[in-house]
Amino acid sequence: MKKLVVSNNYNGKKLNKFLLDSIPTLSQNLLYKTLRKKNIKINGKRISNNITIYENDEILVYIPDNLLKNKFNLNIFYEDENILIVNKPYNLEVTGENSLTSHIHQIYSSFSFKPMPCHRLDRNTIGLILYAKNQESLNILLNKFKNHEIEKHYLALVYGHPKENKKRVESFLFKDNKKSMVYISDTLKKGYQKIITTYTVLEQIDDGSSILDVEIETGKTHQIRAHLAYLGFPIIGDGKYGINEINKKFHKKYQMLCSYIIKFNFMDDNNLLDYLKNKSFFLNVKLDKNMNFIF
To answer: Left, alpha or beta for 129 (phi > 0: left; psi -120 to 50: alpha)?
Structure first.
């Protein structure tokens, strides 16, 4: 059981806002389940609705401590006072409820500034993702991404053997929000935006697959997955842009795509983050005999 008293900051606010902020490991699902069971008291009265609360209200929350433990295992690749680099697993969004960021905010709940992501990875893309641990760092890093002063590389297992060992491809991408899909074109059309993808062949495998290093100069939604598929080299395991028969052949349910290099190519002095200039972070990732990424 947890006993809480409403502060002036939450006067006139909804109960869910106060509880989710006050108990970092409390999920929305568990909160509303607890409400339905009337296991929350406000000033001695059991409630079942997300009501408005007021300053000095006394709230008792009857949830076993074991349900409030943070069971998420955060895989920290690098951390200092300004940045956090995390190795993101499969099947996890970067933002939203029950996301990588929400788990990080629970773990860093005592910090005045909770780490914020500087870029995104798809739910089933794994690997390195960069967080800022203070507002100044966040502002700098977002600006560096905008100015293409942070270089990201991905490791991709694709089906097919490219004829060229290295290729830089410019195309155009359209995002269909309703279908949650993107489409690629060689020519500029209405609503399409320019994309640039560079791939380098690291290895060609006898089973018809290839391992590519992929760098994107433009960070559009699903760019790598859609662009490589358009070029004839779909990522193995990709259920949206890949080939189902190929995915089944390799027994892959998630796209074989890993963010494995982050380089800070800063062009000038950057005050707080100047120490990152020309620094690189490399995730030592390989494929095992079952064609799975291992670290």
So the answer is: beta
